[in-house]
Amino acid sequence: MYLSKEKKEEIFAKHGKGANDTGSAEGQIALFTYRINHLTEHLKKNRKDFNSERSLVKMVGKRRALLDYLTKKDIMRYRAIVKELGLRK
């Protein structure tokens, strides 16, 4: 999946500290969430695409690690990003 520069900047501007702030945990979590949602839809149509399935599992693990880091670092930022992205029900 190719993600355009404009779309990445939009995601980072909305969830990070700015369009060029690609290092913030919130921005990275938002980007992983966007890519995870896209891959999930792809895998619903292409069930035997095991390479994409592996990529999806790895991305979910990376997002989980970032969320764990944010929990330890600043619980308020964690709660804000989880609520914003709707990760917990």
TrEMBL record:
One of its GO terms (cellular component) is cytosolic small ribosomal subunit. Transmembrane segments: none annotated. Keywords: Ribonucleoprotein, Ribosomal protein, RNA-binding, rRNA-binding. Pfam families: Ribosomal_S15 (PF00312). Gene3D superfamilies: 6.10.250.3130, S15/NS1, RNA-binding (1.10.287.10). The keyword Ribosomal protein applies. One of its GO terms (molecular function) is structural constituent of ribosome. One of its GO terms (biological process) is translation. The keyword Nucleotide-binding does not apply. PROSITE patterns: RIBOSOMAL_S15 (PS00362). PANTHER family: RIBOSOMAL PROTEIN S15, BACTERIAL AND ORGANELLAR (PTHR23321), SMALL RIBOSOMAL SUBUNIT PROTEIN US15M (PTHR23321:SF26). Belongs to the universal ribosomal protein uS15 family. One of the primary rRNA binding proteins, it binds directly to 16S rRNA where it helps nucleate assembly of the platform of the 30S subunit by binding and bridging several RNA helices of the 16S rRNA. Forms an intersubunit bridge (bridge B4) with the 23S rRNA of the 50S subunit in the ribosome. Part of the 30S ribosomal subunit. Forms a bridge to the 50S subunit in the 70S ribosome, contacting the 23S rRNA. This is Small ribosomal subunit protein uS15. It comes from Mesoflavibacter zeaxanthinifaciens subsp. sabulilitoris. The gene is rpsO.
